[in-house]
Amino acid sequence: MNPAMFLNKQLSYFAGTAEDRPIHLFRVPASTLFEHERARIVLRRMEVLTWVFMILVPMWILADMLIFPPDVVGSLVFGRLMATLALGLLLVFSLVVMERASWLVSYLSVLFLMAIPALFELYAQPVFVAWQLTQPHITQTQAAAIFLYRQLPIIYISGLALFPMTLTESLPIAIAITVIDAVVDMDGLNLHALHAAHWAGLWVVLVTGGSAVLAGVLQFNLLWQNHRLADFDAETGLMKRDAAMELLRWLWKDKSAAGRCIGVSLMALPQASEGIMDNPAEAKWLSDEAEYLREQLLPDMYGVRWSGRLFGVVSLGHTPDELEGLMKLMRSSSAAPSSAHGSRQIVVAERTADHSVGPHNLLSMAEQKLRRALATA
Hints:
Blueprint: H1 3-15, H2 32-67, H3 70-97, H4 103-134, H5 140-150, H6 152-159, H7 167-185, H8 196-230, H9 241-253, E1 262-268, H10 280-296, E2 301-307, E3 310-316, H11 320-332, E4 347-352, H12 359-376
Antiparallel strand pairs: 1-3, 1-4, 2-3
Helix pairs in contact: 2-3, 2-4, 3-4, 4-6, 4-7, 6-8, 7-8
């Protein structure tokens, strides 16, 4: 057996998905709409987390005041206020870029979110070390509080499970946080200071945090599979109307698509005779037509089932001639010709976004053109 196929089969068992369905553990499909939706999920969850931590981080000063002496509290207060300010800046940034979210921007935002508590730990640990040198006898409560500070790396890595990222995307962040934890343990870069207990602690960080990340990725994989299935028509496998409109809205807001033609095409499939309307052969014919349409699609073209017998395409960066050529090919050929459907009289309508005010207007113009064409056919 091919090793890659064997690995995919084992991962399918592990993830609980069918072997013929893609698994998003290590990479994600190259889909513009997919990446945009993932980016928005990341930014929405970041908004919630930043609001929560902007409240909890300064509030924890009260707990520090009850546990540590004033000189230690004063140092921790400065670090917490800086962390709160950084969270506020991240919140404002996420609100500004939400509508034109890209995966790169959202991923860098996650890096920044994870860096805030990691840098705070780098700041806090020397404060505790310096204080313990002058205060050899500490209470159990103080020791427990310092221990909780030391467990922050596990919390950071576990937090990665909240975001819809693959293991390949999560791994660099997890490794960076673990390295930061090791640097603190080594008193800078003193390798001789890293004894067996510290190695064991790093192992706990990787295993515990890694398990949480893996659990999050698996859960995301399952939920995303179901979510994506809801965007596609079960009978034909083409994108549904609502999903196509969401894609059009995103293309309209995407600044990188400026100056590129955004096209919509529609074609009305010929109606079958009443005798075979409910025949399974009719459903198979529609499925074959949809599959034939998918085979003809060029890059950055998306097949859509606008309604029962209305198929079409959403395209980005293709000229009107290219889009019309594709639809004319569909009109003049067929996946499975059948006399029950009469001649191949598929009516095509298309319009680019050059002079349209928005995606709804673009689709409306194409539908009006199709209705006029059908009325005169």
